[in-house]
Each structure stands twice: as structure tokens, then as C-alpha cells.
């Protein structure tokens, strides 16, 4: 179970690392690895740990599925764009599939972040905010 949890965290950390630097939500949501790295400082309960581990594992499975889908759709679009003359309608229709896959990934990320935040007590959220601010040099 612990190995799966670490694998999920690694995958999710990579996904969150792709977030833009000017992320407008960074002051309101908490990356899973930040929560995990500060379990003691947050005094997470066993119930919170179990819940978050389950959410991380579920998200990992979903991210893996979505990553495969995204790569497939990007590959299909690339093939269309490689043609000497690009069929604009087909290419744009395929672009919509790429964008839909990206949307699903972002939706899954946001769902996980909201669930993590909602499962933290207000004082735990405040402590995480302090930790984030300190790390950013604020």
C-alpha cells in the first residue's frame, strides 16, 4: 500500500509541477505532497491520512488513464498536421479532443485539491498557508 501511495504522489507531483507559475489558486489550495511532508506539523488524524491516501490512489488511476488518452489524441493530431495539406476541419476537430483530454486532467486535479482542502480543519489549512508563505519567502 505504501509503495502505491508513493507512486501516486510521484505521478501527482509531476502533474502539479506542470502548473503555471502564476497559478491563481496557489494561495487557496494545497498540493498533496505539501500535506504529506507536513503530517506531523498538521497533526493529521488517522482518518484524514486514510482518506487522503485513498483520494491520491484514485486520482493516480484517473491521471494514468487520462494521460494515455491525451497522448493518443495528441499523436492523432500530430499525424493530421504532418500532412502536406492539412484538412482544417479534421485537425480542428482533433484539437477539440486534445483540449477535452486536457480539461479532464485539470478537472481531476482540481477535484483532488478541493477534496484535500475540505478534509483539513481550519487550523490545519492556516498552518499549511504559513508553510507555503514561508517557502515562497513571504
How would you sum up this structure, described in words?
The protein has a single domain, classed as Four Helix Bundle (Hemerythrin (Met), subunit A) (Up-down Bundle), CATH 1.20.120. It has 138 residues and is mainly alpha-helical. The protein is built from six helices and no strands. It has helices at residues 2-17, 32-37, 39-42, 46-82, 88-118, 122-135.
Low-confidence stretches: none
Structural class: mainly alpha
Number of strands: 0
CATH class annotation: Mainly Alpha
What about the largest sheet?
Answer: none
- Would you identify the CATH architecture? Up-down Bundle
Summed up, the helix count is: 6
CA radius of gyration: 18 Å
Terminal Cα separation, in Å? Answer: 37 Å
Helix content: over 70%
Which key features would you list for this structure?
138 residues, mainly alpha, Four Helix Bundle (Hemerythrin (Met), subunit A), 6 helices
Summarize the structure.
The protein has helices spanning 2-17, 32-37, 39-42, 46-82, 88-118, 122-135.
Amino acid at each position: 500500500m505504501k509503495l502505491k501511495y508513493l507512486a501516486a504522489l510521484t505521478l501527482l507531483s509531476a502533474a502539479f509541477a506542470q502548473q503555471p507559475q502564476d497559478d491563481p489558486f496557489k494561495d487557496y489550495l494545497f498540493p498533496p505532497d505539501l500535506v504529506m511532508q507536513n503530517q506531523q506539523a498538521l497533526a493529521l488524524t488517522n482518518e484524514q491520512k486514510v482518506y487522503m491516501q485513498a483520494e491520491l490512489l484514485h486520482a493516480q488511476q484517473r491521471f494514468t488513464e487520462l494521460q494515455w488518452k491525451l497522448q493518443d489524441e495528441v499523436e492523432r493530431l500530430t499525424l493530421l498536421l504532418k500532412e502536406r495539406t492539412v484538412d482544417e476541419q479534421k485537425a480542428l476537430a482533433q484539437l477539440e479532443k486534445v483540449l477535452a483530454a486536457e480539461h479532464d486532467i485539470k478537472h481531476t486535479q482540481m477535484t483532488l485539491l478541493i477534496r484535500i482542502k475540505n478534509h483539513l480543519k481550519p487550523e490545519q489549512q492556516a498552518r499549511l498557508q504559513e508553510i507555503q508563505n514561508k517557502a515562497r519567502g513571504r
